[in-house]
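Notes from hallway chat w/ T.B., transcribed later so I don't forget. T.B. wanted the structure written out for a chain they're using in a teaching module, and asked if we could keep both sequence and structure tokens in one place. Agreed to drop them here.
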Amino acid sequence: MEPEIILPPQVAWATGALARGPLVRKTTRLADLPCIFANREEWRCRDPQQSVYDVEVLESPMAEGALYVGVTHLHAGKVGDEFFMTRGHFHARREQGEVYFGLRGSGLLLLQTEAGDARIEQVATGSVHIIPPFTAHRLINTGNETLSSLAVWPSVAGHDYAALAEGFALRVFAAGQGVEVRHV
């Protein structure tokens, strides 16, 4: 008997589209991001249904040793002068790391330890970002097109958004043709 050859899920590297697998899709809109942007008045005046980012994740068992694979598509835009960003999070199981791969667009990855030490890495097509354990992370789109990033992380990691209720230590704003990073 011939062994069956299975065609696994695929990612279109140029767009970040996932195919050939059971997908879970989620859209995060401005209404879902209260208290994320510095200019809260500008946030309140915007269309609450505007999509900020979409996430596609290949279904995977939630078990020790299992991995999730997903793509975040962070749209270009700003609230006031602050660039669109993901909510950002620690893992509920802090000892779990993650890897991001830049697929398209341009932006930044904001990383912050539990002690509040923050750093920023540039995200671009082909960039690889190893997010250490005990490190919160947030994508920020500083470009004019969608920023797509493929991520791989342990399915048991979970998300802890509450630990960042006061926000990250750094914020990124448009400044002329570039960016300005400000300490909070």
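Follow-up for T.B.: The chain has one domain: 10-183. Might be a good example for the class.
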